[in-house]
Amino acid sequence: MYQSKQHLEVVKASFLKDKLKSLAPELDDNNAIRLHRAISWVKCAEEQAANPDLKFITLWIAFNACYADSDAHELVLSEKKRFRDFISKLVNYDAEDRFFKLLWYKFSGPVRLLIDNKYAYKQFWDAQRGQSLDWEALFKQSKIDSRNYLAHQQVSNLLELVLDRLYTVRNQLIHGGATYQSKLNRSQVKDASQILEFLLPIIIDIMINNGGEDWGVINYPVIE
């Protein structure tokens, strides 16, 4: 385990852009376009540093650009299932354990706060809509699970749990379930945007380093 806290810095879009350009000959056009699009939205998010709502939305667009696969529309897979499979693939390529280090060092901050926030928990909202379930027991267990995943370095499981919370925040914003700059949803939006701010550059960097991998066929290809 990592006993001392190191200083984590957000990888900037400019660094990723330069790296992508330098390795472009090793990437096929499909991957180059995908990553170029994702980096452009990371750059946009950097310009929204003071606006958590827009920062989160633009970072989620960058995430969509990374994992979107037009072939997946032919399969009976949910969006969440696709990005969970995508994250497992990324973790396998994470030779430097950057995902774990990020979750370890940020767990006492935005990661834990987001996990412990019932308004970012899907089953809480399912219960409000009338579904018969003990969301409080499930919520408590998910918090226990997150600590266990961290303690045993079960990175894919912990990242999946975090992404599940992020996905709920995404739905609230994208589907009009929150008021712009509302005081009611500040906490989860702020924590979610901070997590994605660190997470997205790691995802993109790993994809650049593995540009020969089949990351799927991009949606809306460039047509001359």
Task: Itemize the secondary structure elements and their pairings.
Layout: H1 13-23, H2 29-46, H3 52-67, H4 79-93, H5 98-115, H6 122-128, H7 135-151, H8 155-174, H9 186-209
Q: Would you mind describing this structure in some detail?
A:
The protein has 224 residues and is mainly alpha-helical. Helices cover 65% and strands 0% of the residues. It is built from nine helices and no strands. The chain has helices spanning 13-23, 29-46, 52-67, 79-93, 98-115, 122-128, 135-151, 155-174, 186-209.
Offer a concise description of the structure.
The protein is mostly helical and 224 residues long. It has helices at 13-23, 29-46, 52-67, 79-93, 98-115, 122-128, 135-151, 155-174, 186-209.
As a percent range, the share of strand residues is: under 5%
**Total beta strand runs:** 0
Structural class: mainly alpha
Write down the Rg: 18 Å
Total individual domains: 1
Question: What is the number of helical segments per DSSP (H or I, 4+ residues)?
Answer: 9
How do the helices and strands follow one another from N- to C-terminus? HHHHHHHHH
Residues in helix, %: 55-70%
Outline the biggest β-sheet. none
Annotation keywords:
224 residues; single chain; mainly alpha
